[in-house]
Design brief:
Elements (H helix, E strand, L loop, with lengths): L1 E4 L1 E4 L2 E8 L17 H30 L1 H15 L1 H14 L3 H17 L4 H22 L12 E5 L4 H6 L5 E6 L7 H8 L4 E3 L12 E5 L4 E4 L3 H24 L13 E6 L5 H6 L4 E6 L1 H5 L7 H15 L3 E5 L27 H6 L1 H14 L4 E6 L5 H20 L7 E7 L2 H5 L1 H5 L4 E4 L1 H9 L17 H16 L3 E4 L10 H7 L3 E4 L4 H9 L15
Parallel strand pairs: 3-4, 4-5, 5-6, 9-10, 9-16, 10-11, 11-12, 12-13, 13-14, 14-15, 15-16
Antiparallel strand pairs: 1-8, 2-6, 3-7, 7-8
Helix pairs in contact: 1-2, 1-3, 1-5, 3-4, 4-5, 11-13, 13-14
This protein binds phosphoenolpyruvate (PEP) and magnesium ion.
Length: about 550
């Protein structure tokens, strides 16, 4: 058995034979043409370009159906790039001035343009270089009469390729596609975005792919970022079972997709998703979450080797807010410290890190650091529906300071002529102090989000990192449940809506308890959204609590 690793862009299992997908080699002649042939070559180029534009427009229509409008947009961008007069002028110049064939001129002119994009610093324009190569191949295939549609074989398989351009990806016959593996590719490339929206397990940057895999049995394990070629029978059995479980979940998903999160007596609850960054947005959409209740922004810091700049942060937040608009996306300001550390912040070791210098305590001490994040968030707010919440709050003073700094950032941006939008503000209720001051805090913000992970740790004095304490820990501890009820009641006294974003929100044995307390929103990992919806739809709050329900 061969085990090769890569980077998974969609969790899931694909089992089947491998098909190596190879573009035919295009040999382009460097021979010169006669003076009198130039106009005919230009006409050939223009006809091929026009046909390529038609094909890109047709791909757009196809992609809208299979992957949605946002993912399809790249093909209208391709069509626009092909219509670009400067690019066509460059091709015609090479044909007319240098006496080369249309194929040669296309290769030279498009390669030059791709190179220009590749040299740019801006990651968006850098990525456009791959698009130029993609449309170049498209025009060359037309000029050389190459049919790329017949390269997928005849039976459903896991496609293995050096790289796949967006136009190749969308042209693939989905009924013959179990999964995709490429040697190149980046997680934010359009190909990856398309694969995600087509809901296909896919592995990129798998450097060990080999032509000898063609036709061999394989398992693409998106959960573990690897592919097993010639898997053992035991592994086959284990991962087939996992795949069946995924299918069961998908069936559940189909049944409940688009349905409301409403109890039998008509009480509506918001069910949102918790995410760690833009790479989880696909999961939010696939699982039909109503929004994002917790975007743990510290992952943006943890994934970075140095302080992420305001622009880098803005890109990450804008992507989330804009992709999900008009749904609400609640981004939590940086919750670094305790178990989440980054070297570049040079935080001193502490005796009691969970009770130490973390979250807003760092932000309010290092104001420039905090302001870079708040400015990025405010800029992103112009692109959709944003909520911002502050973690580890223990006092009115802290919330006041956070809101003041946010106002200061807004004023600065306005003075710079940078657009901002409306932002709902909230706090995490995850310390006993916040619960006990909930009435005062509720007057200051639009919403509360209860972080049951830390709240349990601090109420029960049980270090959440210490596995030895598990026997002493009770996730349904009455003190924690009472604290949740007190928070909901305090919030509602001041028209502040209250959600739960800690792990307890996904505990189905407590769903009825939370609804009876009046919790307005539950934010859970994306995979728990639909099981939770199912649970909610079976609850009747007008009747006596169902058996076993803890009532507070
Ligand atoms: C919590 O404490 O419940 C929470 C949601 O935040 P985190 O787990 O990131 O500390
Ligand atoms: Mg927490």
């Amino acid at each position: 058995m061969i085990v090769a690793t890569g980077k998974s862009i969609l969790n899931g299992i694909a089992i089947g034979k491998i098909k190596i997908y190879k573009e035919p080699k295009v040999e382009i002649s460097e021979a010169l043409i006669g003076e009198e042939e130039a106009e005919a070559e230009i006409a050939r180029y223009e006809a091929a370009r026009d046909k390529a534009i038609d094909q890109q427009n047709a791909l757009y229509e196809k992609a809208v159906e299979s992957a949605g409008e946002d993912s399809a947009e790249i093909f209208s961008v391709h069509a626009m790039m092909l219509e670009d007069e400067d690019l066509s002028d460059a091709v015609c110049e090479i044909i007319r001035g240098q006496k080369h064939t249309a194929e040669y001129a296309v290769k030279r002119a498009f390669d030059n343009q791709a190179q220009v994009f590749a040299e740019m610093d801006d990651p968006y324009f850098k990525a456009r270089s791959a698009d130029i190569y993609d449309i170049e191949q498209n025009v060359l295939n037309i000029l050389m009469g190459i049919d790329t549609d017949s390269m997928q074989g005849t039976e459903p398989s896991i496609l293995v390729a050096e790289d796949l351009a967006p136009s190749q990806t969308v042209r693939l016959d989905k009924s013959l596609l179990l999964g995709m593996i490429t040697r190149e590719g980046s997680s934010n490339s359009h190909t990856a975005i398309l694969a995600r929206s087509m809901n296909l397990p896919a592995l990129i940057q798998c450097k060990e792919i080999d032509d000898s895999w063609d036709g061999r049995m394989a398992i693409l394990d998106g959960y573990n970022h690897c592919v097993y070629v010639d898997p053992t029978p035991d592994l086959m059995e284990t991962l087939s079972a996992r795949q069946k479980e995924d299918e069961r979940q998908r069936a559940l998903l189909e049944e409940l997709r688009g349905e409301e999160n409403v109890t039998l007596d008509g009480t509506k609850v918001r069910v949102y998703a918790n995410i760690g960054g833009p790479s989880d947005l696909g999961a939010v959409q696939q699982n039909d979450a109503g929004g994002v209740g917790l975007f743990r922004s510290e992952f943006v810091y943890l994934n970075s080797k140095d302080y992420p700049t305001e622009d880098e942060q803005f890109e990450a937040y804008r992507l989330a807010v804009e992709t999900l608009a008009p749904k609400l996306v609640i981004i939590r300001t940086c919750d670094i410290g305790a178990d989440k550390k980054v070297d570049y912040m040079e935080l001193d070791p502490e005796e009691n890190p969970a009770l130490g210098f973390r979250a807003v305590r760092i932000c309010l001490t290092r104001r420039d650091f905090f302001k870079a994040q708040l400015r990025a968030l405010l800029r992103a707010s112009a692109y959709g529906n944003l909520g911002v919440m502050f973690p580890m709050i223990t006092s009115v003073r802290e919330v006041k300071d956070c809101l003041e700094i946010m106002d200061e950032c807004r004023r600065e941006l306005e003075a710079e002529g940078i657009e901002t939008g409306h932002v709902e503000t909230g706090i995490m209720v995850e310390t006993p102090a916040a619960v006990l001051c909930a009435d005062e805090l509720a007057e200051m913000v639009d919403f509360f989000s209860i972080g049951t992970n830390d709240l349990t740790q601090y109420i029960c004095a049980i270090d959440r990192q210490n596995a030895k304490l598990e026997p002493f820990s009770d996730t349904h501890h009455p003190a924690v449940l009472r604290a949740i009820r007190m928070t909901v009641e305090a919030g509602h006294r001041h028209n502040t809506w209250v959600g739960i974003c800690g792990e307890l929100g996904a505990d189905l044995s407590l769903t009825e308890t939370f609804l009876r307390m009046g919790v307005d929103e539950l934010s859970v990992n994306p995979k728990s959204v639909l099981p939770l919806r199912k649970e909610i739809r079976g609850i009747d709050l007008s009747k006596e609590p169902s058996e076993g329900t803890i009532v507070y």
